[in-house]
Amino acid sequence: MRRADRLFDIVEYMRRHRRVVTADELAGKMEVSVRTIYRDIADLQASRVPIEGEAGIGYLLRPGYDLPPLMFTEDEAEALALGARIVASWADEELAESARAVLAKLRAVLPPPLQKQMDAFGVMAPPDHYRAEIVVDLAAIRKAVRRRAKIRFGYVNAKGEQSERTVWPLSLAFYGHVWIVPAWCEKREAFRVFRADRMRDLVLPGVRYPKVPGRDLDAYLLEQGISPQDRLE
């Protein structure tokens, strides 16, 4: 591997993991010596890449650092196109429109041969004809997750039992044909998962929920046996 490629890969690895990484870890990933990693980090820092830390402790890339524009391989472009098409077909209309904008931008930065292939990619996302009917506003839930805002709604469980819930929405996740909302439920004082197609009469009280240890998304994932780091991979 060329040194320039390795420096690029080090920055990209640190961006992707968003945590302190050690020189030993980087050396293993890059298949070089720890001493080489020390030199690489020093050179990146000298080039004003915002890496904090020191040898023997670990390194952290400050949030917000952007790499120069990338050139995509055919497989990478296909992966991005498929992801955007899935969002365009299955998400709320506001997010779907953003996905279509991403596709347009992707097409604009691809070289001419890949631009032609993009429309001919064999991977696709069919329309959401098979999605369970959703009457609540997914965009509103998505924004509530982003803003840490409480939501209130009526809910009908699998047994047909109805209840009123006020929850702290932690995520909006898509599983197959179903959108789900993992949340901290004030009524049950525990984590619960709600299917969006079983929610009714969504209300946004305009109240933000506090940051409470043990009631956030990382705690929910740990309860499910999932490492919080896995969602960033």
Automatic annotation (TrEMBL):
It comes from the Bacteria. It holds the Pfam family HTH_11. Residues 138-202 form the WYL domain. PROSITE patterns: WYL (PS52050). Gene3D superfamilies: Winged helix-like DNA-binding domain superfamily/Winged helix DNA-binding domain. InterPro entries: CBASS_pafABC_assoc_protein, HTH_11, WH-like_DNA-bd_sf, WH_DNA-bd_sf, WYL_dom. Residues 6-59 form the Helix-turn-helix type domain. This is Helix-turn-helix type 11 domain-containing protein.
